[in-house]
């Protein structure tokens, strides 16, 4: 059952997903020359990350939202993404799609035997 669902999600990303620019917002270590200064966020951009965002009319109707282990809440869009070797999504990350910046409000990895296979995310503009 899980394998079929994962294949279905990956197929949806492949068919209808769009390339986005993923922004990893990591916090810079404090500058020893300026210890009074708060650390700044330095975004690292990763182009061509494929994400599928369900249309708003599908919010909380698709089976992906009924999984008991997911936390996508009403009012947020649901996005799905496969696994990438060079990063793991983080709640501080954002992504740029069609000129809009999306914030991540929840991330739920779907995994098998401890290995993440896909991510279901709650996102908002």
Describe this protein with a few key phrases.
125 residues, mainly beta, Thrombin, subunit H, 6-stranded antiparallel β-barrel, 1 helix, 12% helix, 45% strand
Could you describe the 3D structure shown?
The protein is mainly beta and 125 residues long. It has one domain: Beta Barrel (Thrombin, subunit H). The chain is built from 1 helix and 6 strands, in the order αββββββ. Strands 1-2-3-6-5-4 form a 6-stranded antiparallel barrel. A hairpin with a 2-residue loop joins strand 5 and strand 6.
Strand order of the largest sheet: 1-2-3-6-5-4
Largest sheet: 6 strands, antiparallel, barrel
Which CATH architecture would you pick? Beta Barrel
Fraction in beta strands:
35-45%
Can you tell me the overall shape? globular
Total helix count?
1
Number of strands: 6
Which structural category fits the helices and strands?
A: mainly beta
Taken in chain order, the helices and strands follow as HEEEEEE
The CATH class name reads Mainly Beta
């Amino acid at each position: 059952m899980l394998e079929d669902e994962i294949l279905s999600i990956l197929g949806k990303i492949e068919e209808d997903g769009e390339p986005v620019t993923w922004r990893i917002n990591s916090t810079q270590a404090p500058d020893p020359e300026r210890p009074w200064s708060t650390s700044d966020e330095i975004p690292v951009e990763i182009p061509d990350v494929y994400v599928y965002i369900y249309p708003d009319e599908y919010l909380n109707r698709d089976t992906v939202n009924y999984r008991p282990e997911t936390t996508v809440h009403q009012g947020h869009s649901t996005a799905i993404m496969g696994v990438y070797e060079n990063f793991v999504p983080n709640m501080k990350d954002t992504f740029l799609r069609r000129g809009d910046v999306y914030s991540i409000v929840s991330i739920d990895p779907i995994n098998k035997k401890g290995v993440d296979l896909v991510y279901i995310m709650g996102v908002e503009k």
